[in-house]
Amino acid sequence: MTKLSVNINKFATLRNSRGGNNPDVLKAAIDAERFGADGVTVHPRPDERHIRYSDVRDIKKIITTEFNIEGNCSEDSLVDLVLENKPDQVTLVPDAQGQLTSDHGWDTIQHRDYLRDMIQTFQLAGIRVSIFVDPVIEMIDGAAETGANRIELYTESYAREYASNKEKAIAPYIAAANRANELGLGLNAGHDLDLTNLAYFAQNIPGLLEVSIGHALISDALYLGYENAIQLYKRQLKG
Ligand SMILES: CC(=O)[C@@H](O)[C@H](O)COP(=O)(O)O
Ligand SMILES: NCC(=O)COP(=O)(O)O
């Protein structure tokens, strides 16, 4: 079965909006595992607008399932953080500074030598490396040349087009997955996966090892817990 890694960035976004420690990001990681997640993903960004580097260190100390750190290895501080904390997996994402969220995969041909070097650095430290790529055959071929253990398919276009034509939306991902399987690359996927589009994706992508999901899952957690929370607060107000 495909593994679910829960991205807990959004807990940190909410916490940071007020200062203090509510909600508690560490508890979010522990509870993700307690509630059945196969792993925890964090994507610290240089401005620390959600996950802070200190969160990464704290999570590393308590995590018992798979720890996946995503980020841009062009930042020395991220490379140091990953090498210091030795997660099970690092996912290299080509984000620019200040980007709202990830919006493209690596050009694995143009950046092949750079990626090779970075990947080797992490692999020598015993860390599995995945690289974020668009579902484009040339980019998958290029990824195999970098020595990456896995690729993470960037699923934003699948999620966007799913409602209008799911067969068309998934076609490039099936082709990319087949190529990755032929080349011996492990296969992850993520971005904008949600309760409406996830099952179809997982059922149709051969060899899908892991999905990382954050934004929609945390939003659903709010909706699903909303009624319960209101009722609990009402109960406090009973005379
Ligand atoms: C790599 C990726 O797909 C992103 O979804 C990311 O990990 C989430 O980052 P933000 O929470 O900053 O949007
Ligand atoms: N790698 C994708 C991820 O961690 C979460 O993406 P999203 O579900 O927040 O879009």
Automatic annotation (TrEMBL):
Sequence positions that bind 3-amino-2-oxopropyl phosphate: 7, 18, 192, 214-215
Residues annotated as catalytic: 43, 70, 191
Pathway(s) served: Cofactor biosynthesis; pyridoxine 5'-phosphate biosynthesis; pyridoxine 5'-phosphate from D-erythrose 4-phosphate: step 5/5
Record keyword Membrane present: no
Catalyzed reactions: 3-amino-2-oxopropyl phosphate + 1-deoxy-D-xylulose 5-phosphate = pyridoxine 5'-phosphate + phosphate + 2 H2O + H(+)
Single GO MF descriptor: pyridoxine 5'-phosphate synthase activity
One Pfam family here: PdxJ
Keywords per UniProt: Cytoplasm, Pyridoxine biosynthesis, Transferase
EC number: 2.6.99.2
Superkingdom, natural source: Bacteria
GO biological process, one term: pyridoxine biosynthetic process
UniProt subcellular location: Cytoplasm
Transmembrane stretches, start-end: none
UniProt binding sites for 1-deoxy-D-xylulose 5-phosphate: 45, 50, 101
Site (Transition state stabilizer): 152
UniProt cross-references to Gene3D superfamilies, sorted A to Z: Aldolase class I
GO annotations of cellular component type: cytosol
Record-stated family: Belongs to the PNP synthase family.
Assembly behavior: Homooctamer; tetramer of dimers.
Protein's job: Catalyzes the complicated ring closure reaction between the two acyclic compounds 1-deoxy-D-xylulose-5-phosphate (DXP) and 3-amino-2-oxopropyl phosphate (1-amino-acetone-3-phosphate or AAP) to form pyridoxine 5'-phosphate (PNP) and inorganic phosphate.
Stated name of the protein: Pyridoxine 5'-phosphate synthase
Native organism: Niastella yeongjuensis
Name of the gene this protein is made from: pdxJ
